[in-house]
Design brief:
α6 crosses α8. The longest helix is centred in the first third of the chain and has 24 residues. This protein is about 35% helix and about 25% strand. The strands form three sheets. The protein has a six-stranded mixed β-sheet. It has a three-stranded mixed β-sheet with strand order 1-3-2. The protein is of the alpha/beta class.
């Protein structure tokens, strides 16, 4: 009987302590050992101070860039010119000393230079803070010349006619068109036939180009080179220029006394004394 009473009392104690002991599991949805923290926003005074600082900094930056004398153009330099003068480039660029550096639109300056000076092939305009603008120019090089009355029109290797000069530059061949009676004129047009001369000039080796006085175009398939020393080269069409240039170099080396060369079929070049 006493044992039954003791067991009943122990059971009662277990029931009373079931929800309060150290082994009590955490309540559902609440991580053990973690406290909830509230997000504290900056005070209104801090926000106003930050806003005021941003406004002041922005205003100062704008004044430094546009209103002060600290960041203004003091020098414009030009490089890469050969035929063009520095003065011509500066006049076309239109960048003036004393202008705020930030107001110089480099892309617009590049476009203006390319439009006003056709001799310019590429141009790169950069700001060099705090006071300098650089203009780097690459000029077009004439591949052939076209006679125009008493002057000469320079044409680059892209077929662009970029300048008219009174004195022909040295070592640049003259392109001569004799296509009035050629059926090629109706089929291809004068511009494309003129481009044939440019393509041929571009395929010549440096030594042959220096010796070439005239590139004579009679038709699309008949282009002839007139060299120094009374030598003549039948080139054919402007196609396969690289192969023809190699064939010409080889046959000239093999036949040093020849005055006539035929590389119209580059796999079978020919040469003769007359």
């Amino acid at each position: 009987m006493a044992g039954a009473v003791r067991e009943k009392a122990a059971a009662g104690r277990e029931e009373r302590g079931a929800g309060a002991g150290p082994g009590r599991p955490p309540a559902a949805g609440r991580p053990a050992g973690r406290r909830t923290r509230k997000l504290r926003l900056p005070s209104r005074r801090v926000l106003l101070a930050a806003l005021l600082a941003a406004v002041v900094l922005g205003g100062f930056s704008g004044w430094a860039l546009y209103g002060s004398n600290w960041l203004r153009v003091e020098q414009v330099t030009v490089s890469g010119t050969d035929v063009l003068s520095t003065g011509e480039v500066l006049d076309a660029a239109g960048v003036f000393e004393g202008a705020p550096m930030a107001t110089v639109d480099t892309a617009a300056v590049e476009a203006r230079l390319a439009a006003e000076l056709r001799r310019i092939d590429t141009v790169d305009v950069d700001r060099v803070w705090p006071h300098r603008i650089t203009v780097k120019v690459t000029e077009r090089k004439p591949a052939v010349l076209l006679r125009k009355g008493e002057t000469f029109v320079e044409v680059d290797d892209g077929g662009v006619r970029f300048a008219t000069v009174r004195t022909a530059p040295e070592n640049v061949p003259m392109a001569e068109m004799r296509v009035a009676d050629s059926p090629s004129l109706d089929r291809f047009g004068r511009q494309r036939l003129r481009e044939s001369a440019v393509r041929v000039a571009g395929a010549l080796s440096e030594s042959v180009r220096r010796d070439t006085r005239t590139i004579l175009v009679r038709s699309y398939d008949s282009v002839t080179l007139e060299l120094t020393g009374g030598r003549t080269v039948l080139w054919g069409s402007a196609e396969r220029g690289g192969a023809k240039s190699k064939a010409l170099a080889a046959v000239m080396k093999a036949e040093r006394d020849a005055r006539y060369f035929d590389v119209s079929v580059p796999s079978a070049p020919a040469a003769s004394a007359s």
